[in-house]
Amino acid sequence: MAPRAFPLVKWMAKGGLAGGALYVVYSQGLLSGSDQGARALGKVKAAVPPAVEEWTTYFGWQLPAVPKTEFSLCSAWNSGVRTVINALSVAPTKGCDLTQQGWKYIKDLVK
Hints:
Mean pLDDT: 85
Helix content: over 70%
Distance between the termini: 70 Å
Largest sheet: none
């Protein structure tokens, strides 16, 4: 009986973790507007460094200092969005060109 129950328990544990993660994401407002997401990011930025410092002193670990980077997630996200929108706007023309090239290739093969 135990070997048959193990996959069920494993599946239930995974489902519980996924459900809990979804609950936390929803309760923090990350599934709504960007202003609530920005507030949640601010909370995380304020809470994580003290927690990491507390755990490293508890376990006696010594972590290197976190380097300061000038990386804007908003600009990277907008860059990806612009790339996708650009590809979608060029797709009909590119599809027409590729179709014409394909027909030309087929006609050359038939000759």
